[in-house]
Amino acid sequence: xxxxxxxxTCLLPALSPASPQVGSLSGTAKVVNGGPGDQxxxxxxxxxxxxxxESGGTSEIRYHDLVSGVDQAIPNDGAFDFVSDIxxxxxxxxxxxxxxxxxxxxxxxxxxxxxxxxQAGSSRRAxxxxxxxxAWQDFGYTGSTLEPEIALFDLDQGxxxxxxxDRMLDRTPSVSPDGKTVxxxxxxxxxxxxxxxxxxxxxxGFNSQALTGSEGExxxxxxxxxxxxxxxxxxVDGVSDRDIYWKPVNGGTEQxxxxxxxxxxxxxSGALIAFxxxxxxxxxxDIALYDLDxxxxxxxxxxxxxxxxxxxxxxxxxxxxxxxxVAENGDFNVRSFTFKLPRDLPCEDAAPAEPxxxxxxxxxxxxxxxxxxxxxxxxxxxxxxxxxLGFYGLGAGVMCVDNGYSGExxxxxxVWLDGAEIVDPSRFKPTVSLVxxxxxxxxxxxxxxxxxxxxGSSFRIRIYGTASACGVTQPVxxxxxxxxxxxxxxxxxxxxxxxxxxxxxSDGPGAGCxxxxxxxxxxxxxxxxxxxARPRRVSVVVSRKRLRRRGRAL
Length: 554
Known about the structure:
Structural class: mainly beta
Shape: elongated
Low-confidence stretches: 1-20, 344-353, 467-473, 494-554
Oligomer: single chain
Strand order of the largest sheet: 22-23-24-25-36-1-28-27-26
Radius of gyration: 27 Å
Largest sheet: 9 strands, antiparallel
Helix content: under 10%
Number of strands: 37
Distance between the termini: 57 Å
Mean pLDDT: 82
Number of helices: 4
Strand content: over 45%
């Protein structure tokens, strides 16, 4: 096994990933407000959307019920209201008249908005809310536009707390749904050298600490209370780009969603992350959605217009609502997409279960048993040959290895599923034409194989699964279907970016790895090699940054 491991390590550049077949989303798109003027910066909690509406030099906060369609303005008596957020039925926003203050409004109670912690001549903005905790930028503590602090207000206790006290620029706060975790970006006075900070409730106050360090330039954090997601700018091989990263609130392993192009402005709810994505082949921004549980990427919009300023909410019943701003016809409008994740839907088997058959019987006569994946590997000369394939399968399955499928029968080889060795070299013999194994499939799965021995030998691998309607959504009239794509995140070492080092096992003079292959292909199969070698997964990263909300630049 050690020798095989060394060979697989050497062959990393020769392998490239294939995307498994994953499910799709079926949901309903809706125009929240496409009226005159600019409708922008939407935020959603359950079925309620709060957003800013600007027209004719005035600005107000409106709220929209995605179920009933009711859309109303929050009374402002001629004041200038902008940049809202919502949690449950509570809306918070900035109101400017003789001062810049933070107000709260309860949807459905027919009461006037209430100012939080009133202060004459206050200079506050960028209010956000999670549970019963409100956070905002407060310029009144320092009197400097370059040194705002983060303030917290407890709606139940009516208490105001100064969270930060330094000479830095603290901005873009966000609060977890339970109100017990606050995250924000801390930068120097020029708005550069930014890191993500967090504060967590400790029973008698909030304890603050840095979540990121010198590894990059971070901005626009959001949190679900367990994970903090953010965008970061980092240099790799002399190239700068912006990607989406996340890390547990208690610190530890950082992960990166490595996609070509520029990705920014993440929002998180439950296990879903929504963000802005600019594919280099398309040129404009679209709204993307990433499922942390299934490692599936969905592109919710693909219009020629720019979509940005996104937010999302996952309800207890599994309903997901994503909202964003789109630039069209010279104005900004608010749109939404509502759906349920495939795994949240009740399902039944598509057909009665067939009588249990042996693995050999399935391989010999598969009948209607679904073929989930097929992979062939052939022996040439030089280094042993390796291939890999990603696919989706769940539950009981059967692996069939057809030895000598398109050549001579192999005399040596390996087959792995998600890094677990299923077939070893002892099974590859000139007298054996079929190796059948019962396997268990856990969803998104990696199949990898390696062949050595006589040139001209080959074998084929087939994976069969169970026919089921579970996890499959059926579109209905008026719904859009959005395909998913499997994208495994890259994992970084705690405390920064480092590189993986593979040490080949030498069988004698000259043993080791060649320098062939491409970095992209090597990165693609790094997960397979790491499953075999069992070190920690690590990668290098790229990224650039861009502000998420025009009203939250400071």
